[in-house]
Write a structure and sequence with these properties.
With 118 residues, the chain is mainly beta. The chain has one domain: OB fold (Dihydrolipoamide Acetyltransferase, E2P) (Beta Barrel). It has one helix and seven strands; from the N terminus they run E-E-E-E-H-E-E-E. It has one helix at 51-60; strands at residues 6-12, 17-20, 25-34, 42-50, 66-77, 82-95, 103-108. It has a five-stranded mixed beta barrel with strand order 1-3-4-6-5. A hairpin with a 7-residue loop joins strand 3 and strand 4. The protein is globular and about 40 Å long.
Length: 118
């Protein structure tokens, strides 16, 4: 049995960016995730969202916003490099970053067809 499922909580690194793919629009952003404990470091995880989830991400994800995401690990190869990231199927807004309006909610989507990670 194989399982490809990822759940992460962290802060959005920069405002989400909506892009035009071959088949549909998608949204890209990065998530800063603590490695656990003080002074253990931070991982910066590239993420992509499609469809309704991508629309919501593009509209509401701004730098510093705390979120929880679910999705799958994905990869995309180019000439000599392989890029890794998360294809997001669910976003939950966890509250507010300092100085922003406090909201919580979620967006879900089950399938995506045009994946820049592979």
């Amino acid at each position: 049995m194989q399982l490809n499922r990822v759940s992460l909580a962290g802060n959005v690194c920069q405002d989400a960016e909506v892009r035009e793919g071959a088949k549909e629009k998608f949204c890209t952003f990065s998530l800063a995730v603590n490695q656990g404990g003080k002074d253990k470091g931070v991982d910066f995880v590239p993420c992509v969202a499609f469809g309704k989830v991508g629309e919501i991400a593009g509209k509401y994800l701004t730098k510093g916003k705390p979120i929880f995401i679910e999705g799958r690990f994905s990869s995309r190869k180019s000439d000599k490099t392989t890029y890794y990231g998360i294809t997001v199927s669910n976003i939950q807004f966890l509250g507010s970053a300092e100085g922003t309006e406090k909201k919580s909610g979620s967006a879900k989507e089950d399938n995506s067809s045009d994946n820049p990670f592979g």
